[in-house]
């Protein structure tokens, strides 16, 4: 009875409460269940149910600037160079050497700041961040701690959610700052000889550190934000964004709290170099902290390394001391050419307006444009933009064929991208050019070949790169069969040998006609003109032509 249920309601746990309602529903009449829900004294219980702990995520992202030379020296930047072959005296920190700022790196940071709607500081400063590490010969890193080059930006990212993962969910994370800084060298640990080898090729390479506010709540969001940032940087050309080569490295700061309460203590998972692993590491860390708090423990402010197996702790970081870098003057950027002081060469100065003018189309704008211009599905616009060169390919095909964009997108994503992925190839390596694919689609569109034959021709074109669609159709005699007499005879054969199907159609099951059409196509290896075949079969099975 209802009194019993109300007594049980003293359980403060919403899950237990739901269980009781569920049991009540199963063991009592429906009306009883509704009676319970309409009980006014139950509402406060639902509202006062304890809030769940949720994850809070703030990312620091180190993006290697796409530049031929390092941030403060003229040494080249090349990932594959032999160890210690790209090291200048300054990179090795020999006494008496001085930093010379690389303008290309400043331009890249300003461009990235503009693309992320940051305020560009007209004056920024360089600082020394001291810590001891074998791959940091100077004993400090030159960074921008007091006044970075760009502040207060946003990154809007999307991911596919909902039941079918086809609903576009759009979120925004605030960017606290973008700072210019040097990369360190690389330590290579040789466990067999118990040695650590140092490669200084990376020492002094220009980095942009993007510091995000703790606005995200789970691994999926963080992964989507990093993926979007990667696409933006690649579109700008300011960073190649290859995570496996360390061009984009993520530190994930993770804490848990109850919404509305102050943020919890953060643990930092450092140097994550894959988007998938980032999502897993964050979700693991959130769950680890929830488990600790639920057992009555406290979360430690610690650094957790991302190398496998995850969960290897590093000792607490020694205190870091900052001091202004005495060898570099304040970095000044100018709004436009008009604001340049006399005597300063416009080519030598960093001018924000000049960089703003050459900002390329950003991925989110590109996706919206593709959906609006071509009427394709949002999820298809994601696939197109995610694959380097695929948008250009798609648009190049559309320029040549009369086939509609919604049909073309199917070919580009299913056939072309499917084949490329299978063979681990990039779009630029495709053996079928956009104009060659367009020619094939045109043959289908103008009724020269059927859609199933078009698929067959695609396979042939892929294998015999260089042959045109028309050549293959002619060589293999794949043209559409439109000879009415020939089709009549094939249809008659199919009708005669499938009396059950014909009866089913005569009794009103019109769908069975498709089966007969399939059998005719089988006979003709997919070459029969489908419009003619349908008409002939309808006639032979005594259906009216409007069916
Ligand atoms: N309670 C919190 N939970 C999760 N993330 C947090 C929390 N507090 C701060 N963060 C995130 O931690 C990061 C702090 O980065 P910041 O570069 O300012 O400091 P740092 O980690 O001490 O420095 P660095 O690692 O560069 O030496 C930011 O991305 C911020 O969003
Ligand atoms: Mg930082
Ligand atoms: Mg940090």
From TrEMBL:
It is an enzyme of class 6 (ligase). GO terms for molecular function: ATP binding; glutaminyl-tRNA synthase (glutamine-hydrolyzing) activity. SUPFAM superfamilies: GatB/YqeY motif (SSF89095), Glutamine synthetase/guanido kinase (SSF55931). Residues 392-541 form the Asn/Gln amidotransferase domain. Its EC number is 6.3.5.-. GO terms for cellular component: glutamyl-tRNA(Gln) amidotransferase complex; mitochondrion. It holds the Pfam family GatB_Yqey. GO terms for biological process: glutaminyl-tRNAGln biosynthesis via transamidation; mitochondrial translation. It catalyses: L-glutamyl-tRNA(Gln) + L-glutamine + ATP + H2O = L-glutaminyl-tRNA(Gln) + L-glutamate + ADP + phosphate + H(+); L-aspartyl-tRNA(Asn) + L-glutamine + ATP + H2O = L-asparaginyl-tRNA(Asn) + L-glutamate + ADP + phosphate + 2 H(+). It is found in: Mitochondrion. Gene3D superfamilies: 1.10.10.410. Subunit of the heterotrimeric GatCAB amidotransferase (AdT) complex, composed of A (QRSL1), B (GATB) and C (GATC) subunits. Belongs to the GatB/GatE family. GatB subfamily. PANTHER family: GLUTAMYL-TRNA GLN AMIDOTRANSFERASE SUBUNIT B MITOCHONDRIAL AND PROKARYOTIC PET112-RELATED, GLUTAMYL-TRNA(GLN) AMIDOTRANSFERASE SUBUNIT B, MITOCHONDRIAL. This is Glutamyl-tRNA(Gln) amidotransferase subunit B, mitochondrial. It comes from Dicentrarchus labrax. The lineage of its organism: Eukaryota, Metazoa, Chordata, Craniata, Vertebrata. The gene is GATB.
């Amino acid at each position: 009875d209802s009194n019993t249920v109300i007594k049980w309601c003293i359980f403060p746990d919403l899950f237990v409460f739901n269980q009781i309602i569920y049991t009540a529903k199963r063991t009592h009449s429906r009306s009883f269940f509704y009676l319970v829900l309409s009980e006014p004294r139950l509402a406060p219980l639902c509202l006062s149910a304890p809030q769940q702990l949720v994850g809070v995520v703030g990312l620091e992202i180190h993006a290697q600037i796409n530049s031929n030379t390092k941030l403060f020296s003229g040494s080249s930047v090349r990932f594959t160079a032999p160890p210690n072959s790209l090291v200048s005296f300054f990179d090795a920190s020999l006494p008496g050497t001085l930093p010379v700022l690389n303008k290309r790196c400043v331009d890249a940071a300003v461009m990235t700041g503009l693309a992320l709607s940051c305020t560009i500081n007209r004056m920024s400063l360089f600082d020394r961040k001291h810590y001891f590490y074998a791959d940091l010969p100077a004993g400090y890193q030159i960074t921008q701690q007091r006044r970075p080059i760009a502040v207060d930006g946003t990154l809007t990212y999307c991911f596919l959610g909902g039941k079918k993962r086809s609903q576009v969910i759009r979120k925004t994370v605030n960017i606290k700052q973008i700072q210019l800084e040097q990369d360190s060298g690389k330590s290579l640990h040789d466990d067999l000889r118990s040695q650590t080898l140092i490669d200084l090729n990376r020492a002094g390479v220009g980095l942009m550190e993007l510091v995000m506010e703790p606005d995200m709540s789970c691994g999926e969001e963080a992964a989507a934000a990093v993926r979007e940032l990667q696409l933006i940087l690649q579109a700008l050309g300011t960073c190649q964004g290859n995570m496996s080569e360390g061009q984009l490295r993520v530190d994930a700061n993770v804490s848990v709290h109850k919404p509305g309460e102050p943020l919890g203590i953060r643990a930092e998972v450092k140097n994550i170099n894959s988007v998938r692993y980032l999502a897993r590491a964050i979700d693991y860390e959130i769950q680890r902290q929830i488990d600790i708090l639920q057992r009555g423990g406290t979360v430690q402010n610690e650094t957790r390394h991302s190398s496998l197996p995850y969960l290897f702790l590093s000792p607490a970081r020694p205190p870091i001391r900052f001091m202004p870098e005495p060898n570099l003057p304040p970095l000044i950027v100018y709004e436009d050419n008009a604001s340049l002081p006399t005597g300063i060469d416009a080519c030598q100065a960093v001018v924000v307006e000049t960089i703003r003018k050459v900002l390329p189309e950003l991925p989110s704008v590109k996706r919206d444009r593709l959906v609006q211009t071509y009427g394709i599905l949002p999820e298809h616009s994601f696939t197109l933009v995610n694959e380097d060169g695929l948008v250009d390919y798609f648009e190049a095909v559309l320029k040549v064929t009369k086939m509609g964009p919604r049909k073309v997108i199917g070919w580009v994503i299913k056939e072309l991208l499917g084949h490329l992925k299978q063979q681990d190839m990039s779009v630029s390596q495709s053996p079928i050019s956009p104009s060659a694919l367009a020619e094939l689609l045109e043959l289908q569109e103008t009724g020269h070949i059927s859609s199933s034959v078009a698929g067959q021709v695609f396979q042939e074109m892929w294998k015999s790169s260089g042959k045109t669609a028309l050549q293959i159709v002619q060589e293999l005699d794949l043209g559409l069969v439109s000879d009415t007499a020939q089709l009549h005879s094939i249809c008659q054969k199919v009708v005669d040998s499938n009396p059950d199907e014909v009866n089913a159609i005569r009794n009103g099951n019109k769908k069975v006609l498709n089966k007969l059409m399939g059998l005719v196509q089988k006979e003709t290896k997919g070459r029969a003109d489908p419009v003619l075949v349908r008409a002939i079969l309808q006639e032979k099975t005594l259906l009216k032509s409007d069916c």
